[in-house]
Amino acid sequence: MYINYLTLPLVTAAAALALGAWYLFGTPAPGDSQARRRSFAWAFGACGLILLITGLHLVLTWPIPGGYNIVFGEPLVYFGTLLVIGAPALSLGERLGPLLLLGALGGITNLVLALAIARHGMTQNPALAAAMYSASGLGLLIAPAMGRSALARRAAGALLAASAALFALFGYVAYVKHTGLDAFGKWVPLEMRLWR
Questions:
Q1: What is the pLDDT of residues 172-196, one digit of tens each?
Q2: Residue 151 burial (CB count, 10 A)
Q3: Residue 7: which residues within 8 A CB-CB, separation 6 or more?
């Protein structure tokens, strides 16, 4: 049996998206306080580190079946890296425009992955998986415009919040399913199977 730890990056992605929505709804665009920026930076960095590590493992070792390593692993590496790099930039008060543009390009990738998930019927709930990728992709596409438009800021925040809810639902349902006896509940490491 293969190793499937997607639950951890799924709920971490939900946390990062929820933090993003909270940040966008809670702060007027022009005047972030330094203390607020720093507190969010630590949280974004922590989420990014988990996403980057789990994503790299997925991309480099392919521990789960086929294309799922691409659909889940590659966005984890991309957005994990942006969060890890973006956290100190946010803390220092740097302009985030170029990072937001990279996020928007990743948003396009999420929209393409939503199409791939729906087209190939990936996951046990392709509609939910496609919706969570679509909502995050659209939110990230809008994000670069939020410095100039309060409406764009609110729309991006709402889409990130919706995506966070979908990622959380997907992740927590996976926790319940993966721990069941018909899934990984009876799984034992290879070493234990060899010595039986």
A1: 999 998 888 777 777 666 666 677 6
A2: 11
A3: 171, 174, 175, 178
Residue type, 111: L
H-helix segments, the chain: 7-26, 34-61, 68, 74-91, 97-120, 126-142, 150-178, 190-194
How far is residue 125 from each of residues 134, 154, 169, measured CA to CA in Å? 14, 28, 11
The Cβ of residue 38 has, within 10 Å, a number of other Cβ atoms equal to 17
- Taken as a whole, the chain contains a residue count of 196
The contacts of residue 65 (CB under 8 Å, 6+ apart) are: 2
170's CB contacts (< 8 A; 6+ apart) are: 10, 123, 125, 128, 129, 132
Quick check: 115 and 130 in contact, CB under 8 A?
A: yes
Residue 28 DSSP SS3: coil
pLDDT digits (tens, 9 = 90+) for 5-35: 999 999 999 999 999 999 988 855 455 688 8
Residue 191: CB atoms within 10 A of its CB come to 7
